[in-house]
Amino acid sequence: MDLFPHRHLLGIKGLTEQDITLLLDRADEAVKISRQREKKTSTLRGLTQINLFFEASTRTQSSFELAGKRLGADVMNMSVGNSSVKKGETLIDTAMTLNAMHPDVLVVRHSSAGAAALLAQKVSCAVVNAGDGQHEHPTQALLDALTIRRARGKLSRIIVAICGDVLHSRVARSNILLLNAMGARVRVVAPPTLLPSGIAEMGAEVYHSMAEGLKDADVVMMLRLQRERMSGAFVPSVREYFHYYGLDAEKLKAAKADALVMHPGPMNRGVEIASEIADGPQSVIEQQVEMGVAVRMAVMETLLLSQNREPRA
Amino acid sequence: MSRTTVIQNVRILDPSRNVDEKGAIVVENGRIAAAGAGALNQGAPEGAEVVDGRGLIAAPGLVDARVFVGEPGGEHRETIESAARAAAAGGVTSFIMMPDTDPVIDDVALVEFVLKTARDKAVVNIHPAAALTKGLAGEEMTEFGLLKEAGAVAFTNGRHPVHNAQVLRRAMTYARTFGGVIALETRDKHLGAGGVMNEGLLASWLGLSGTPREAELIPLERDLRIAGLTTAAYHAAQISVPESADAIEIARARGANVTCGISINHLTLNENDIGEYRTFFKLSPPLRGEDDRKAMVDALAKGTIDIIVSSHDPQDVDTKRLPFADAADGAIGLETMLAAALRLHHSGEVPLMRLVDALSTRPAKIFGLDAGTLAPGAAADIVLIDPDEPWLATRDTFVSRSKNTAFEDARFTGRAVSTYVAGKRVHSLG
């Protein structure tokens, strides 16, 4: 019985509703472990996990590290700066070097789309994509889904409004895929300069106004707007952006009264989200962080245990 | 060479004379003595080599107007000698070599170096195109007159567009008297900036920056206006969207002396071939959508698009085994251009005569080469094609030094079985 027929987790694309449900169910179990006093299990004892981060990310890296440790794996962190050597060369070269050390799972973050897939072709262990350029960030979408499911009890037919810089967001792409696979209704709300070409065919309803896009939404998912994109390149100014797209109490009123407010972090307070909302009663931003560890435990456990069912080539 | 070769019972396809008939070709001293039905059953002189051409097509050897070679400066990717062997294997008997080398071919000495190396080592005819601007920097024009006298057949900025309209206007005005055809690729500096594939849904899903069609079209329309203004001969080296073909047609109607080409990749592949970040399909201009491809095939059949090029661009693993956005553009193509073009014949989309015209006769005419014809007196550059032979383009079948083909493991029907340059056989299968 192959419950999860995938060797790697490179994206949400290719996962079925069953695959996603299996990961979320296991993550629910992992939440319990994280809430116990004794948090360490022996599920992955003796296995080696390497976190290979070509792009700095304290949050995601520590979440993966903790997930591995709670499963009993030996975890090693490698942060490879983007500075001197050309990015691509270090990717393959570093991957081959690490591969020779017989890791069981490689967690990869890279600034180029497709980097995780390229690496997966070159190494003989499981690969988890921790974010590749503007392509996908599957564990983020899974942790978002887990957060929503635990609060709402389901994912189907709920309305999720993804707001902000969809164009540059791997989080948005993974979430659109996952939420569609689970039968949710997805909306994107952004100025047209921050939406990718063909967005209307990607499985999302397109809105340019927060009042309309948030109407009756169950979930308001804010995206981070990077600083270099705020002043003139994609939007005229921080002030104008916040005025039209920053989530404040007034705009949030359009959503359902108990709508969840989410953000993948790190937040730009006063740019895409007002502090009163980020810290307010509808915010589940801290739960997202907790669910992150659980989802990553579930992903690695699933990949490594399904791999152990058959001898490795 | 005083030997005589007679190719018997062959279907002769010669767009230069609009000939499509069963006949024979007689080659004497490296030149065509006769080619046509009239030469059938004339016998062969004592000691002549007789080739049975039954089931084959004889066409003028292909003329590829856009080939990148690694020599000088990148010999690990391709040398003049290895590119020539690849050309011969693909039925290409003449090609125009792009000046994007290291150093750049922007000086008489470098044109002479290419011609000398070609004379010594190459089995096909190689014609250097000289850089339009020094160092391909797009700022100062090169010595058109002297370069042309040295043997440069065209002026181009290779992979680099010319952004400055004033520079281009002066270069085209000067070239009208001293130079020849100016062949350019167009890509807006800002609009296409950062783009690594066709803009659209697929790029959005892959998380890759897109290049809009307007990035090609807007500077092309500018160039066509300058061509009209200066009355110089302008060749759009590689167009990829039907709007560009329309722009060429409109400029012609205004009286501008303009022609255009398309790479075989853009006629037979589309953006979906990129799949999961396959860098061998990363090209400039990018592969477009299937609707674009079909429209370009129509424009080729109609003759709006004059010629087909291979855009042969050898790249090594160091520039291709990278994440998609970081990888170099380009694919090799000399060896697969003919076979891929035959797909358009087998599908009924483009008549064989038009294909051979676009692959041989037209480019020879545009760039003023002694090629592209089987008329008596012409150089005996001939390709014998088996139009129906099935074959598989596996990696080890390629003779090019680089293996970055967009047709790896492709199934083809038809290929060059023999290639003759000045009457000498430089390639034969089996």
Automatic annotation (TrEMBL), chain A:
Residues 7-149 form the Aspartate/ornithine carbamoyltransferase carbamoyl-P binding domain. Residues 159-302 form the Aspartate/ornithine carbamoyltransferase Asp/Orn-binding domain. Pfam families: OTCace, OTCace_N. InterPro entries: Asp/Orn_carbamoyltranf_P-bd, Asp/Orn_carbamoylTrfase, Asp/Orn_carbamoylTrfase_sf, Asp_carbamoyltransf, Asp_carbamoyltransf_Asp/Orn-bd. Carbamoyl phosphate binds at R59, T60, R109, H137, Q140, G265, P266. Heterododecamer (2C3:3R2) of six catalytic PyrB chains organized as two trimers (C3), and six regulatory PyrI chains organized as three dimers (R2). L-aspartate binds at K87, R170, R224. The keyword Phosphoprotein does not apply. Keywords: Pyrimidine biosynthesis, Transferase. Its EC number is 2.1.3.2. Pathway: Pyrimidine metabolism; UMP biosynthesis via de novo pathway; (S)-dihydroorotate from bicarbonate: step 2/3. It catalyses: carbamoyl phosphate + L-aspartate = N-carbamoyl-L-aspartate + phosphate + H(+). Reversibly catalyzes the transfer of the carbamoyl group from carbamoyl phosphate (CP) to the N(epsilon) atom of ornithine (ORN) to produce L-citrulline. This is Aspartate carbamoyltransferase. One of its GO terms (molecular function) is aspartate carbamoyltransferase activity. It comes from Shinella pollutisoli. It is an enzyme of class 2 (transferase). The keyword Cell inner membrane does not apply. Belongs to the aspartate/ornithine carbamoyltransferase superfamily. ATCase family.
Automatic annotation (TrEMBL), chain B:
GO terms for molecular function: dihydroorotase activity. Residues 254-426 form the Amidohydrolase-related domain. Its EC number is 3.5.2.3. Keywords: Hydrolase, Pyrimidine biosynthesis. InterPro entries: Amidohydro-rel, DHOase, DHOase/Allantoinase_Hydrolase, DHOase_cat, Metal-dep_hydrolase_composite, Metal_Hydrolase. It comes from the Bacteria. The keyword Hydrolase applies. Residues 58-243 form the Dihydroorotase catalytic domain. Gene3D superfamilies: Metal-dependent hydrolases, Urease, subunit C, domain 1. Pfam families: Amidohydro_1 (PF01979), DHOase (PF12890). This is Dihydroorotase. The lineage of its organism: Bacteria, Pseudomonadati, Pseudomonadota, Alphaproteobacteria, Hyphomicrobiales.
